Amino acid sequence: MDYSLTEIHKTTNLILCCECGTEIEPNASNMCVSCIRTQVDITEGIPKQAVLYFCRNCNRYLQPPSTWITAQLESKELLSICLKKLKGLSKVRLVDAGFVWTEPHSMRVKVKLTVQKEVLNGAVLQQVFVVEFTVNNNMCDDCHRVEAKDFWRAVVQIRQKTDHKKTFFFLEQLILRHKAHANTVNIKAVHDGLDFFYSQKQDARKLVDFLVNVVPCRYQSAQELVSHDIRNNTFTYKYTFSVEIVPICKDNIVCLPTKLAQMLGNINPICICTRVTQSVHLIDPNTLQVADVSGTQFWRYPFVNLCSPKRFVEFMVMQVDITPEKDRPHRVPMSHKHVLADLWVSKVTENGLSDQQYFCRTHLGHLLNAGDTVLGFDFTNANLNNPDLEKVKAEKLPDVVIVKKVFGDKTTRNRKRRWKLKHLHDDLHMETASNERDYTDFLEDLEEDQTTRQLVNIYKDDSKTIAVDTDDTEDEGLPQISLQEMLDDLCITDDPMGDED
Asked: In sequence order, what E strands does 209-351 have?
């Protein structure tokens, strides 16, 4: 039996257009597309020309009614702004939208739109058209204030009464890590602090709340009347927040007031500040007893630093005797990160070592060996004018207080440093001898203290070669930061394609 395949053709009956007589397939309107377009325009009510407002100072476009947005040419953000400018677009169904290329300096932006709409007894008509936007230059309100030299409404003045800027370097990294400087109009470095300017009071208030949570400080607020409109009874003020940080920093030697020492568990008045976070962390080098002084306690019982780091003297460790645990004073709470030891040290002078040796106790027994160099303060040859220190009995006053160990030459440590930090403002890092010394000391503190290092974003320095090594120290015993603790510095160029101009 033979089988043959038969092709089945589906035929469609054609009709004549009721307007022009052209043969067409039947539809709900019985009209061809050309005739429908002559009678119905689905783009009616949609403007074919519009205006975009652009600020040349900050490179932002105005999104109605009053929001300025940063957008690149032919970007999704700019397309969104253009579509929101077209009022009648909600009456049709938007199928597609895209840019038509125009010369970048022509101040024209063309958008090609494809829309659909149901017309004449349910027939769906699709139409493509182009909307031309004219870019007009218009300065935004923020740039107006800058040009008028009246660009801020609130200022946060951060001050600390110290002779170095190590605290501000640490505070700068905290602000960068948490992006607390958002919406800042300007940042200005002054002699003993920083000024943050804002266009709105609530932005300044957020920074003040952030500072209260990260460092022990107190603040005062004030307002100044700028203008007054008697017709609608409105007032314009400038607000000032004055923030004062406690004048105590890491590695400072302090003498606590008697009442405060009793409140902290009868700790010895002579203490060393190990670090400053939300509170001031103190340790007694003779007993390893630790205490935390909050900002409220400090301002109620204030105390000052006995000496600046510039007055520290270099000592050579002659003998180290670790104190047995049974002979250690039992104080609660105590530090378990430090080891109590008895030291014999000799002062390092320009001609070598002095003949006189000093006996002292230190909390750095886990770091010191005979022959190491340490920094400390000599109380026997010091002339201090401190009322709290005068109340301390002579037998309880130590001859020497050892503060920190010297791990190596600063030049050698700078050469081996393969990481870097980001900066908030260039004025804070002015090229002066004092700033360079304070910043170098801050970098060394980060290398030596892992707890403080966890609060800072550390970036890999691509300009220096990094060996594949996970150890934190090299043969010289210098403390270093491992590669795992570093972040890759992300650099974003102006060209979205990654090409340089």
From this structure: 217-229, 234-245, 253-255, 270-276, 280-283, 290-293, 313-322, 341-349
